[in-house]
Amino acid sequence: MFVLLACVISCCVSADTAADSMEKHKVVPDVISVAPGDILEVSYGKNKVNLGNELTPTQVKNPPSVHWNADGGSYYLLCMTDPDAPSRSNPKFREWHHWLVGNIPGDKINEGDILSEYVGAGPPKGTGLHRYVLLVYKQPDKINFTESHLTNRDEFSIQKLTEKYKLGQPVAGNFFQAEFDDYVPKLYEQLKGIKYKFLTAGTVILSGYTVNMDDSNVKAKMEANEIIPDVIDVAPTEVLQVKYGSLKVNMGNELTPTQVKDIPEVTWKVEDGAYYLLCMTDPDAPSRDNPIRREFRHWLVGNIPGNKLNEGETLTEYVGSGPPKDTGLHRYIFLLYKQPGKITYDEPRISNRDTCNKERYRAFAQKYNLGNPVAGNFYQAQYDDYVPNMRTPLEESMLYGAFR
């Protein structure tokens, strides 16, 4: 009885805290009319969103981990929105939405329909703190969203959208605040050439964003996520098409170890008669903060005729993502190199991935005169419950070797 009472009191305190914080910071009524009953759990790696705490654009540049008390058979809509565009004192473009995913089964965001791809906080210089509000709504059922993929990010209203689809009030929510830092210009560059809205002299806010990555975004995405210079010096010119079943790798989106346990389908533009080398690497072993085992080789296939992967020479068998617990997001990078011809690779076939951690792909490519990669892509992943199942000797070194 005491435990039950304590839980009830805790839930009430949490709800009251959420309502109080949202009213204090005027999320109610600027964004919603009624505060949600539950606090949405949102984490950017080790940085947790906590009802108005301040984070930096650098810290929130990648999609967060989001969880809520979900009914297994229900669908949900998740939104992240900034009501302070271009500034809280002059919100003439309210709201600028940063993320919108519908038809989420339970809290499995990766299985939902992406209406707007995630874009991190990018408050213009001199505009002070912006509020970034994350809300979850329970849908009455699966919805055929007529918006498809939204291209206009500004002058959005989550209230109007939810009224349109009769979603009622949000069931969970949270928010953080952020102001300009040195990452923001990189974000603008990352989305350069898409759709801009000029707000003040020399300052831009992005008002449109394409969810399908094209070749022009490769360099900006890889620089923003520090693949350049951590792994390669020069970005590839094309996007490598990588799919795990129906899930696409999309320049830094988050997938789970469960979703990437099997070999993906990989395709690219080929030249007649050419041979290629494909690699997959994790530069964040055992963690991005402490990459003492950089790089961990997950896959390496050479002498691929055209894009016939099955006819290539496997130098390292595929191993899915197995990031150790509490090491945050790891970057998993696919790179494709065009070979000068068919190559006799003198490396032994890798049976222990950890033995190659000092031999980085940059050096490997130089050794065989492969030049710069012609295509690339990457995703991010962190520990999930599938990782302990990776118990073959090949995975042991990655999962546990870093801590011996």
From TrEMBL:
Keyword DNA-binding: no
Keyword Plastid: no
Record's keyword terms, sorted: Signal
Region forming the signal peptide: 1-19
Domain of life: Eukaryota
InterPro entries: PEBP, PEBP-like_sf, PEBP_euk
Alphabetized Pfam families for the sequence: PBP (PF01161)
Protein name: Uncharacterized protein
Species the sequence originates in: Diploptera punctata
